[in-house]
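Support reply, case 0932

Customer input (verbatim):
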Amino acid sequence: MKELFDKISFNVSKQVTKEYSTSFSLGIKMLHNSIREPIYSIYGFVRLADEIVDSFHDFNKAELLDNYKKQTFDAIDSKVSLNPILNSFQHAVNYYKIDKWLIDAFFNSMEMDLVDQQYDKETFDKYILGSAQVVGLMCLRIFCNKDEAQYEILRPGAMSLGSAFQKVNFLRDLKADKDNLGRIYFPGMNNQEWTVELKEKIQKDIEQDFIHALKAISILPSNSKYGVYIAYRYYFKLFKKLESASFEELLTNRLRVPNYTKIRLLFTSRVRLSLGSYFL
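Our regenerated output:
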């Protein structure tokens, strides 16, 4: 039965999310039950592409990514795929009318990871758009449930939130990206100009993204506000921890937010939402 295969497909996407990211899994659990499956589907889809460019070093990454891209658009057009991850993703894309240009932009950024890059502001912004902002917009399509007017109002904030999350990831993973993958994303670091001033500039940029995103979170639909706010607060907590560290510390350790802090955020976020108190 097709219904059974669809159920299995969604479960595979959910399992991929749980195995790869406890933080996003926690946030998704706080979304309304009606939208959890398509959000898991988006994360599962994105995760597979990330794995191709980040982990499959003994294989032809360019060929694998190109095949994955073709299979993705084939699945969307035919509304089915034997790949469970793509089958669940195409369902979300078709049901919520997710724009294909978002998916194209995502693959463009993944392709940038296949070659050595010296990032300037233009290429950095292009990478952020495809690797993070469009993912936020895919999720926003689901949150807004085909309400085009609401989507347009929230669109800039969703892009800022995706941008903030990705830039925080870059800071957190500075050591792994540099040592294991040979990547340095932030412009200015390519020439080893790792100064206090550069770090402060990066942090100010991230903080502005967080401030802009918070305004949109306060008017998100009730189906997603709590889950997104938890993810927001978790990433902001991580950001503050990274902010207090030096470049030398970031190149030595991968900083993280302890589990007990994540649990505390669950409760304090609920209280803040009930009081209408949105702040950094």
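We compared this against your earlier run and they match. Two observations from our side: The chain has 13 helices and no strands. The CA atoms of residues 106 and 130 lie 4 Å apart. Please reopen the case if you see a mismatch on your end.
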